[in-house]
Amino acid sequence: MARAKAQPSRHCGMGQQPAALMLIVLLFSSAMVARLAWLQLLHGSENRARADDNRIRLMPRNPMRGRLLDRNGAVLGTSRLTYGLYLQPQELRKNQWPALRDRLAQVVGLPAAQLEQRHQQGDHGDGFRIELANPLSPEQVLRFREQSGQLRGAEVDVDVMRSYPHGPLAAHVLGYTSGITEEEYKQLEPKGYRIRDRVGRSGIEKAYEAHLRGEWGGQQVEVNAAGQVQRVLGDKPARAGKDLRLTLDLPLQQAAERALDKVGKGAIVAMDPQTGAIRAMASRPNFNPNLFSPGPTMAEWEALNGPNAPLLNRAFQGFPPASTFKIITTIAALESGKYNANSRVMTMKSFCYAGLCYGDHGAHGAIGFPMALAVSSNTFYYQLGLQIGPDQLFASARRMGYGSVTGLELRGEESSGLLGDQAWKKRVLGEPWTPVDTITSSIGQGALQVTPIQMARMYAAVANGGWLVTPHLVERPTPRRWLALKPVTLAVVRDGLRQVVTNGTATILNDPKLPPVAGKTGTGEDPPRPDHAWFGGYAPADKPSLVIVAFGENSGGYGGTVAAPMVKALMTTWFRGR
């Protein structure tokens, strides 16, 4: 009888399988628990913050910059709403950007290379978006919105841009704004600035940045996985900057701009001699500050930094004062005690001293100070300079404010000019002082440079009875210094400046349509270039309310034929109907 074959037992194998499965489940469960502990207990706060970053976004709102107004409230600088194209980097992967870039280039009509450059320059400091283009035209905005469903990751939003309704008018006074750099952002972020902020770069925009800038606002919103806003969590309105009323007078500023159109380079300063309030300040060549709102093109930037230096405010730059400096020499002579109101000096066509001869444009015999100023006699002042000496001459120049900045708000833009006295010549040139230096300095030539704003301040001191005022563009308490000049000194100078207009080198201003005008012409040599032309004066001569200095840089001609007509144009505007 055959034995049956033994069958393998299945009971043992079936018992091992549940144990193995249980072990696998326990391992996975332990791993999940460990992972949850890792995520929630050890890194819970960090991961919640990351989730909120993906779910909650801050949509910033630009602050409206304060307006710049003239003294009567006319708008000189303001802000306008524009549309900008922005990229939201959180809504697309890096490999999706090239396709979006090319599509945007087609839709809004901008070069793809330009969009790529703005993308690479974009700073993620606000963690939200990068500006790709600004401003957009209404047509570009419409085309974008028509196809916005296919342009995920990009958006068009309202922005605020600085605007100057009168274009280049008073550009050097108002200044301009531009975006902050990465280095500036690191310093300014603690003060509330954002990477998209703009700051004042020159003029009033820079000097009163804190007053004008305002404060950012924004909305905190919750978005879904598609980037769509679900609800608003918080809203902080942007706080607008404060308006700033300037001392400028718009009609007078416009007259100054028109007057300077007659010269290629130059400057005009008009000022209240009693207070130092600037009523007009213009410089040529000038620029349009609106160029900086979107940012100048490469060609525009090259022109702005070209040899004509249109960004340079010539009202703050030093130039040889020429015969206008004879006012200083007159003050020095009378204050020295070596001369008095009745002193007379012989004039001639040629004055010779120490083997050298110095010419003059006329011989008038023995004349006093008023006539010497009226006819601008060189030989009269050559002799005065030698008699009083360089120490007295330069001391009087410093006393009248030359050689130092005036205290105007636009700090850092103003030159102190140059008073090339004995110490300066020894230190800079390594040469001793000679009588030739004294002679040339006494008529405003040589190593002398005076700025138009300094000259306006000097004329104001003569006009207001001997107070050195502080020029200013915003009404504020400003100091003024008593010069303690002898009454006879002021009387003689004012008499001479009046005669310059009645029977001297500026008779063009002796117009019955104007109040009595007083002032002084100057023609500065600048070989081999054409001469400079100056005129500075005030009116009414008996009770001055306005000082004007006009300067033509290498304009050719004379102070009486080039600069005095510019002053006449401004005085006609100012005193019309007064």
List the helices and strands and how they pair.
Blueprint: H1 11-42, H2 44-55, E1 56-61, E2 68-69, E3 75-87, H3 97-108, H4 112-121, E4 130-133, H5 138-146, E5 154-163, H6 171-174, E6 177-179, H7 182-188, E7 198-200, H8 203-207, H9 209-212, E8 217-223, E9 229-236, E10 244-245, H10 250-260, E11 266-271, E12 278-284, H11 298-304, H12 326-336, E13 345-347, E14 350-353, E15 356-359, E16 365-367, H13 369-375, H14 378-399, E17 418-419, H15 422-429, H16 435-442, E18 448-449, H17 452-463, E19 467-468, E20 481-482, H18 487-503, E21 518-526, E22 529-539, E23 546-552, H19 559-575
Parallel strand pairs: 2-10
Antiparallel strand pairs: 1-8, 2-3, 3-4, 3-5, 6-7, 8-9, 11-12, 11-23, 13-16, 14-15, 17-18, 19-20, 21-22, 22-23
Helix pairs in contact: 10-19, 12-14, 12-18, 13-18, 14-16
Can you characterise this structure?
The model is unreliable at 1-6 and 123-127 (pLDDT under 50). With 578 residues, the chain is α+β, with helices and mostly antiparallel strands. It folds into two domains: 57-245, Penicillin-binding protein 2a (Domain 2) (Alpha-Beta Complex), CATH 3.90.1310; 250-285 and 314-575, DD-peptidase/beta-lactamase superfamily (Beta-lactamase, 3-Layer(aba) Sandwich). The strands form eight sheets. Strands 2, 3, 4, 5 and 10 form a five-stranded mixed beta sheet that branches. Strand 14 and strand 15 (356-359) form a beta hairpin.
